[in-house]
TrEMBL record:
Protein's UniProt name: APO protein 3, mitochondrial
MF GO annotations: RNA binding
Natural source organism: Gossypium hirsutum
Domain APO residues, every copy: 148-232, 321-407
Origin: domain of life: Eukaryota
Gene name, Swiss-Prot/TrEMBL: LOC107944127
Amino acid sequence: MGPGRFWALQKSKKKKTKVLLTAMLPRQTRTMTMLRELALRNSSTNSIVGNQLKHRHGFHIIRQTCTEFPRKLKKTERKPWVTNINELKRIGRAERKERQIVRERILQPPQNGLLVKELIPVAHQVNADRIQLFTCVSKVAQSIAIYSCSVCGEVHIGHRPHKIRTCNVMGSAASKEHCWRRGAVEHVLPLVESFHLYDRLGRAVSHNERLQVDRIPAILELCVQAGIDLPEYPTRRRVFPAYSISGRVIDFEKRFPKEDAPGKDIYACGFWQKRNNISEDNKSADMQPCDLQGTAVRGMEAWERMRSGASRLMETYAVQTCGYCSELQVGPKGHRVRNCQAYKHQMRDGQHAWQEATIDDVVPPVYVWHVRDTQSEKPLVNGLKKYYGMLPAVVELFAQAGASVPNDYVVMMREDVAVPEWDEEKLVV
């Protein structure tokens, strides 16, 4: 047998083995394998550029970007850890070993109760951006419709709410279609509250004190602890630093200095009375009429500055969140109020499972489906939802008003993916 005959037999054996293995695969897998080979074969002669659809052998080949939308956590899932759990265990062991040695340890701001002077202007800027953002959203919401599902709470921005069947909660219809109603600003900017601490180094709020301590927006409490002084929310400003001895914080200042007169600058009101200080502060911004696009541009800039500034503050000032619910506490430790009703709360006696918070916990972005053509009367349909993009509700609201979308959200819009028509959807690979 010659060498040519030998190699021909080897090639035929490999081909028979490949055909046999392919026949053993399920039908759907064989179909996907054939389509992949067809696409690779066609790619050598037909270039696929951007979002253009190439008709070849009756199929549409689309280049899709590998973009993963934020996944909704299940009720039994815990939020991802910001710091690795093994690193947290290592830090805990080191702190326990340090507490066994009786010696004084010098703390750095803000652990010693003093303010970080470099972050005081950042806190003022974040508070100003918060007020401006609320004002801009209120103005733009008068021209662009906001819808909210009365069952699951999903939000849609723009006229003609979508027909995507994602209402999958207890009490929803069998068809999983949403029950839309007109929404408001609180659906776009949800309010996340935190207990206001007079002394951030003091003891945590107990369960019996839950009705006696004020709750204010978490972003505002973060700014107050970082250096903003509000008369209605007094806080302790130390002059001398605190020290740590065997893990216990020792404070050499008087408990209540003379300049902190009791009852001074405190608005006396009960728990059941509603105070409108926050809303009046938001309305005190410039409310002069202006063009819609200019308002959207200013609002988009305020949104970016507020999130970046808050992230910078959270790198120094600790914020805690529950791993299973949306409860938040600004400060070095969480409170002890037993009001958690999330997964396995009975095993914790209602206590929260505290962990380090992220910027999305303090300023939660409500993700909505992105509407490309705001002039179209056709709503988004359920059959083509895999081609649609998503954006935070605030960004989508300002984008429909004429503001440019920041580069961080361009990939999530999926503008490079062509949305086929109904008769073309069956031919898409």
